[in-house]
Design goal:
It is globular, with a radius of gyration of 31 Å. The protein has 4 domains: about 20-120, Zinc finger, CHC2-typedomain (DNA Primase, Chain A); about 135-270, DNA primase DNAg catalytic core, N-terminal domain; about 280-480, 3-Layer(aba) Sandwich (Dna Topoisomerase Vi A Subunit, Chain: A, domain 2), CATH 3.40.1360; about 505-645, DNAb Helicase, Chain A (Orthogonal Bundle). It is of the alpha+beta class.
């Protein structure tokens, strides 16, 4: 079935609104995907005993820290404390939510996913309706629509007489026919209803095209028009190589009256410019090899850079490089080089670049091209070797870049106030980053100390002075910071979550439960979930008890299917590794479990004793209750001290 036929068919049948994934779906996909093959397809793995090992992609790994367990179908990096299963790997490596990771793996395995209950709920995509972003079939329809539209625009650029001036412009910019194909370039003719005619006025398909930002309506009302009419189109694809939006450049001969040189797709269920990079689909493999990402500001800059051998080049979408972009790039590269067009732009963005460097914990450099040239013109005029030399010799680290920007023309010997203002400006940027306190990773804390030491040397002031001033700036910032609600915490990767309570006894319980899942019924008779403090351990234990009550043995594999959150899956892998080691070491599980149960009972007795003593002192009990309570306290104390119960005779 062609893309056009599929788009038409999906529009006619409406959008399927699917609920969350069933266990059957997850189990089918998990069994069909081999984690060694999945991870090994993205990075080198080598056999080590029963496991496989490789260099962890999430930290500067010089010796293999990533372990892949083919028997348990899990992975774990003990340095990063990151682990999980095939779903966790896909979510982290591709930057997607669970449902999308499930769909991607299902597509890889050739499995058709079902909704909960094994049936499909169908709804229409009529006037005024918009697809639910979490609906699997709705997303599929939108992706199909985008692929169809990309094909229409691309074919127009290649074949239509109306696109002659667009083809001439690309030739003048030195963009080859191979690049036109590789980057899926297109053209939208000047007629306002060109795309609408392509769908023969079908209202369902027109509505879908409006949802993905291709068709638009005027604010004052009226019919559809093509948002990108009269523009050369750059297809914007996600990391999975799916078209999700367009960047449209107006051409001198297009006749359009729009004052905007570039127009990007609006925010849609598929398109979010803060989380997308132009050319990432083409550059990701080169980034993995070079461990470097070149971030440029123009679409043609990226295309020409690839033509000259810089296969790790990408571009931001008409916005500044942000935290969302950095999170994506850190999955593929260790070093990010921001290539700016001129000195003025470099100076203007010094603070935002330094803030990213500090907050995102990334090796970030800045290259400002000479004479205000853009990468496209520079490469055509000077060649690949000249740019490679600049990247090697002239790219400044974020700290160097910020220092040169704030101290340009400053007299360090005589302008004391100027030096003081420059220090305040740089430290003010650093103070905005999350504070690296005692609970932070040692590597991050060392990074901040080195940063301040470097600044102290540059400004010729004592290190202690720099640290005291940074501390004061942070104190000032906290005084003006709004207090977060104690009821709600933001959800997402960048959210600050309340610290989980440390519960060593609960952790030991879970290690043994996962090691001996067949003993859960025995354990839960004495240890109810409420005896664990709120947190991840109680959540996992509650699930184990629920499954046991349902007659299901809560094995490690089953628990990995019960949870979708990567953090919980990572914790389960860690608990399983330690639990299996205990199982190999301990000969009698019942003895170990009984000791653990007694520990919980002693802990509960300690918790209840103050209440019991108060009840005795207040005289709230009758004689029989007092006698029973005293006997229970004596029994508990004997047990605590290891004294056996007295026997008759």
């Amino acid at each position: 079935m062609t893309c056009e036929m599929e788009f038409a068919a999906l529009a006619q049948q409406g959008l399927m609104v699917s609920s969350s994934s069933s266990l059957d779906d997850k189990e089918l996909v998990r069994q069909a995907i081999d984690i060694v093959e999945l991870i090994g397809g993205q990075m080198p793995l080598r056999r080590q005993g029963r496991n496989y090992v490789g260099l962890c992609p999430w930290h500067d790994d010089t010796r293999p820290s990533l372990q892949v367990n083919p028997e348990r179908q899990s992975f774990k990096c003990w340095v990063c404390d990151i682990g999980g299963d095939v779903f966790s790997w896909m979510m982290r490596s591709e930057g997607v939510e669970f449902r999308e990771a499930l769909q991607m793996l299902a597509d890889r395995a050739g499995i058709q996913l079902r909704s909960r209950g094994g049936h499909k709920q169908e709804g229409t995509f009529g006037e005024g309706d918009t697809p639910a972003p979490t609906s699997g079939q709705a997303k599929r329809t939108l992706y199909t629509a985008m692929a169809w539209a990309e094909e229409q625009y691309h074919r127009c650029l290649l074949e239509s007489p109306e696109a002659e001036h667009a083809r001439r412009y690309l030739q003048q910019r030195g963009i080859t026919a191979e690049s036109i194909e590789r980057f899926h370039l297109g053209f939208s003719p000047g007629e306002h209803d060109w795309m609408l005619r392509r769908v023969e006025g079908d209202p369902k398909r027109a509505k879908i095209l409006e949802t993905v930002g291709i068709l638009a309506r005027p604010q004052e009302g009226g019919g559809y028009y093509d948002r990108f009419r009269g523009r050369l189109l750059f297809s914007i694809r996600d990391a999975q190589d799916r078209p999700v939006g367009f960047g449209g450049r107006v051409l001198p001969e297009s006749g359009t009256t729009s004052p905007a040189k570039y127009v990007n797709s609006p925010e849609t269920p598929l398109f979010s410019k803060g989380n997308l990079l132009y050319g990432l689909d083409v550059a990701r493999d080169a980034m993995r090899k070079s461990r470097t990402a070149l971030v440029m500001e123009g679409y043609t800059d990226v295309i020409v850079a690839h033509q000259y051998g810089f296969g790790d080049a990408v571009a931001v979408l008409g916005t500044a490089l942000g935290e969302g972009h950095v999170r994506i790039l850190k999955r593929f590269a260790d070093r990010i080089v921001l290539v700016l067009d001129g000195d003025e732009a470099g100076q203007r963005r010094a603070n935002e670049v330094l803030e990213l460097f500090v907050a995102a914990q990334v090796d970030l450099s800045i290259l400002t091209l000479p004479e205000g040239a853009d990468p496209c013109d520079f490469l055509h005029q000077h060649g690949a070797e000249a740019l490679a030399e600049l990247l090697k010799e002239k790219a400044l680290g974020a700290l160097d870049h910020a220092f040169h920007s704030v101290t340009r023309g400053l007299d360090f010997e005589n302008d004391v106030n100027g030096v003081d203002r420059a220090i305040e400006q740089i430290l003010g940027v650093i103070a905005k980053a999350p504070r690296l306190g005692l609970g932070s990773d040692a590597q991050q804390r060392n990074r901040e100390w080195k940063l301040l030491s470097n600044l102290a040397m540059r400004f010729r002031v004592p290190e202690d002075t720099m640290r005291m001033r940074l501390k004061e700036l942070r104190r000032r910032a906290r005084r003006h910071m709004p207090r977060p609600s104690s009821q709600q915490f933001p959800v997402g990767e960048a959210a600050v979550q309340p610290p989980e309570p440390i519960d060593p006894l609960g952790r030991e319980l879970l290690e043994l439960v996962i090691a001996y899942p067949e003993c859960v019924a025995e354990i839960r008779a004495d240890v109810v979930p409420e005896k664990l403090p709120p947190g991840p351990y109680r959540g996992i234990y509650e699930t184990c008890c629920r499954l046991s009550d349902e007659g299901v043995v809560p094995t490690f594999d089953r628990l990995m299917l019960e949870f979708d959150e990567p953090a919980v899956k990572s914790l389960l892998v860690e608990l399983d590794e330690v639990g299996q080691a205990k199982r190999d070491r301990d000969a009698d599980p019942h003895e170990v479990l009984q000791e653990l149960i007694e520990t919980f009972q002693r802990k509960e007795a300690d918790r209840q004793r103050p209440k019991q003593i108060v009840a005795l002192r207040e005289g709230e009990l009758d004689d029989n209750q007092e006698t029973a309570l005293l006997e229970e306290i004596i029994r508990q104390e004997r047990n605590r001290q290891g004294i056996s119960e007295p026997t008759d005779g």
